[in-house]
Structures
1.
Amino acid sequence: MSWWEGKERIREYLREVNKDSPVIEYSLFQPGLFLDYLAFPHKTSKYVDPLQTVFDFQNKRGIIARGHEHAIMTLTTVSDLAAIVTRAIEYEGRWPTSGGIQGNRLTFSQIYEIGARVRGCPFDISTVELHDLEAGKLKVSWGLETSHHAVSGDEADALLRAVPIGVLLSSTKGAWDSSVEMNELFPDHKFTSAEEFLSRVWTASVDRGNLRPWDLHR
């Protein structure tokens, strides 16, 4: 996905700097997709704004690339990521270069099964063809409508189409299947389960007046 090319350049630079001997200690914190985004439009984290994804729990619908119903998505809450990063900063040992964080490891089908249980009915799933995605086409009757606040108006329309295409294509290549280095480094950390978190979100959405975002992580 083009908007992450800068991360790859930094990764290549660090790899080159450390080629002959360790110069800079670093770790690639990789938590997959924020589970909080599946709560859209509800804000579940103080510092991360809600964003839409191909998993539309609000409208009980979703998108899958044909033949890739079992593509893996790693889903980790913002709260869990913050907790792991905090512990990593305090950790006196050496960081693993690949810092995979696996809150939940689920297939697309499993995510939609959770959605059906949490929202009370099966989701309306749109199936798209891989060759269309590779051609930059998203042939569905709906799309993302809310862009990140850092994106200008001129870029928003293109990005709202590029994001789901990028997510779907990269998922077919295993890009969202995070490793577990940080899980193994801090084995006593209890990660929030996707079903538990989403059940709290969508049950609480009936009465948002009595809910603060941080209550969802308790």
2.
Amino acid sequence: MNTSFYIVEDDKVVQNILKRIIEKNDLGDIIGSSNDGGKAIEDIKILKPDIVLVDLLLPTVDGIKIVSKVKETHEDVTFIMISQVSSEEMISKAYKNGIEFFISKPINVIEVITVIEKIKEKVNMSKVIQSFEDALKGIRRIDHVPTEKKSKEHSNEDKIEKVLAQLGILGEAGVKDIMEIILWIIEHMEEGKNNLPKYKLSDIYKYLCDKYSEEEGISTNTSAIEQRVRRSSIKALKNIANMGIENPENEIFVKYSSTLFNFKEVRNQMNFARGESDQSGKVNIKKFIEGIIIDIKDE
């Protein structure tokens, strides 16, 4: 499903520019627009767009009021504020009321596209997490009849998938590799103990090459596996950092920001995402993998 947009802007020229940017760059579907704040509030509550582009200075009802009113009942609507206002106090107030990003006028096309794509990534991640949680609730509702106990490995797979879903990376190419690495390590842990075995990631990558070749006829190499795992774990870091920017008290952010990553690197990534630093965060693959193992073993 495409990302849906609603535009609140009293300047028709700016409104049309934003529409063209979204349509020309295939960023999503525009499901409504308005130049009146009061009407916009009612429309947004009914239409429930994923992202709202809203001007700060509007007649009758200003942008901050729109954000706070909508957020009272629709917390999942994401707001990007666009304005020529330069007052730090006003911008700070806008963030406190729930905007995700502030773009200064005059409109810079590249900046608008970059911000929207970044926000879309977070919106899609939230949808994945929500759908996963809804699926789990549905399973619990219908699975009221006792069934045969799942195998240990299958149970571990479910737990790993849950963590990866919370990190927003279930669709990444390296997820299968991460799953196999974790299952290999768990299999080689001493029975009844939580002590991790001694291992080298390079050896496990080689093991996976052989396994994929023998069981699935897939030819690959250790470098390809390593790159897939690294890209997926970096994506997880980016998602966690974005959660922390959006809400430092987010349960997933609090739970994983220091157990799967070095928190200093999470902070570096948060600063990078805000544009406050040119140095992004880094991932320690072993810490990431072993953090997931510790998490699922503690359940």
